[in-house]
Structures are given as structure tokens and as C-alpha cells.
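Continuing from the previous page...

OK, I double-checked the sequence for Acyl-CoA dehydrogenase against my notes and this is the correct one:
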Amino acid sequence: MNFAFSSTAQSYINRLQDFMAEHVIPAEAVYFSQLKRGERPWVVPPVMADLKARAKQAGLWNLFLAADEHNKVHGAGLTGLIGLSNADYAPLAEIMGRSFIAPEVFNCNAPDTGNMEVLVKYGSAEQQQRWLQPLLSGEIRSAFCMTEPDVASSDATNMQATAIVEGDEVVLNGVKWWSTGIGHPDCRVVIFMGLSDLNPKAPKHLRHSMVLVPMDTPGVKIERMLSVFGDQDEPYGHGEVSFTNVRLPVSSIIAGAGRGFEIAQGRLGPGRIHHCMRVIGAAERALELMCKRAVRRVAFGQPLADLGGNSDIIANARIAIEQARLLTLKAAWMIDTVGVKAAMSEIAQIKVVAPNVAQMVIDQAIQIFGAAGVGADTPLAAMYANARILRLADGPDEVHRSMIAKLELKPYRNSL
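Thanks. Re-ran it with the corrected sequence; updated C-alpha cells here:
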């Protein structure tokens, strides 16, 4: 296993770092000043369009989508794909994770990345032309509607929403929430997951379907936007959405009825790599801010770096970040070399490790900053909230630990 970055990856690393330093980080204050706070509809800050145009021109666009995935499309004439491996993309995701606004600048933000991967791997030519191409071009945004308010969605087999085939139509009913991206003014389509087979005795992982739902379809209603630690995360937002007798052509079902869980598993592996590397990038920025504060801020006649156990805190943060990064790179390398199924334990491990490490490091940075760390003058409070959310998103820590233990114990149980 070689941890050296390929020449292609190193070239993108250098270019992306330069672009971030020259354009993205300096634009953060402008971006947040342009956000319209309060009730929907929210606006997309004008500076974002300028940054996206610059990123496209620089060839730093759709970095997340691998070349072999591009080759699987159904002759839809898709454009704008780079073709990096997961191991090549991982350091780029980390760089983007240093800024809240960066992923969208490069058209690499969730849930659009996962939705695009689904359409590349499983979408029909018609679905790719209608939805994938404008997503790749950055003309529209999307959301993913899976989690439900009335059941424990950490066990997705609990799902109650339905997607029933009636003749040449599929009829959707149910309520979803924490549908990230649903509040974005450019959100035009969602992927809805629901039960297609209501027989409780049917194989539980063959009962669900994923359906592409245009936002303007009759029966689709955003009931409310949900706040996260008191913030509504504009302009993306997380919504509670009702689907009431929503009728769509059967051709809106992705890959056919009953394949929802198969698609979900194909979606989550690379997506978790993206999340984990981005949050490691946030931890790196937090450590950098912490170190600058610690050497410049003086209390009781000494720099903060020399007070109490702060030097140990900084050292332990560096150790933890390096460990998390190496484990995430290993998982990315395994996805590339042996596939998602063989890397299930490593993917679950990084999903536990990376957000917990980031939460710890960012919390320590906040402590070094004092009151300034919890305000809006630094990105630390938003980073902390994001890291904490990631311990629930794409499955809570406990579910991933259960998977790790199950895989670890399997050979021993089989030997009994």
C-alpha cells in the first residue's frame, strides 16, 4: 500500500490549494454577508456564482466522480467529469473541508455528489439527460429524502413511506425530514426512498425503491425547515417534506422497483470517504487556528501555548488527525482496489473516527479562543456543529460500531 499521491493527484492538490488561498478563503466573509437570513426563500450569495465560474475555468470542477463511473453511462453525452480515483480525490476533499463554502464552489457538495453518483451508476439515459447533466453543470441542486420522523431511521428497514407501482405510474406517500439541500433556491429534484413491496414477509432489503421526484410535482410540500443548533444552514437547509399521492411515471424509478437498498449501499461508500476527508480538513483548519491563537495570545504573562496542558492538547490533536487521515486514506484505497463490499469495516471505522476526532480538536480550539470561539468571528462554532452532526448523518456511531464488531466476530462465529 503506497500512500504517496499520484502525479495527477499532486497536481490537483497544488492547484486546489492555490485556488482556495486566492479565491475561496478570502470570499467567506463576503459570502456570509450576502446570505439572506430568516424565512425562506433564501438567496444564493452572488459571490458563489463568481467563484463557481472561476473554478470551472480553472478545471477544478466535479472532481469527485471517478473515470470508471463515467464510462458506465448509457451514452448520454455527459460532460465535465475529471476521473480521479477515491484515493486521489480524498486529499482534495480534505482541502475543500477547510471552508464551509468550498464544496459547492467546485460542484462537490453533498447531497448532490451522492445523487450524481447514483444517476451515473444506476440511472437510465433519460434520467441522466434530464437530471444528471444539469447537476454536473451546476445549473440545479438536489436533495435526498430517506429519513423519517416517526421511525428510528438508523434502521432503514423501519421505513414507512411508500412508492407503490400502479400500472404505468408510481404513487408516493409519506413524510421525510432532515432532507438536506431542500431549501436551496436551485433545488429542482429529490431522490425519494420508499416501500414498493408491502408484504412484510418479503426479503427486507428487496422491498424498497428510489424515485426521482421533481420539486414542482403536485403533492410535494415542504412543511417546515429544521434548525441545527439554532441555525437553519442557509441556503441549503434541512427540511421536513410531505408526499401526498404524488404520481409519477414508472420511468422515474431508478434501476427498477425493489433496488433501493442496493443503490443506497453503492451510494454510501464513496460518500462517507468524502464526508470524512472534509471533516478532517475542518479539523486541520481548527488546529491551525488554535496554534496561531496559542502563540499570539498572552495571559498571566505567558503565551497560551505555554500555559497548563495546552502543549499536550496541541500534540494530541496532531496525532489524532494523522491517525484519522491514514485510516481514511486506507479506506479510499480499499474501495479503489477491492471494492466497497470488501472495505465495509474500514468505511465504518472512518465514519466513527473522523467526526469524533474533528469534534474533539475543534472543541479544544474553541477553548483556546475562549468566547471568540463560539461566535461568528471564527468558523469554529459552525465547524463544531457540522462535526457533531456527522456522528448521526449516514448512520449514527453506534450502527457503525455494530457493523465493525459483526465483521470482526464473523470468522470466530463461523468456526464454532
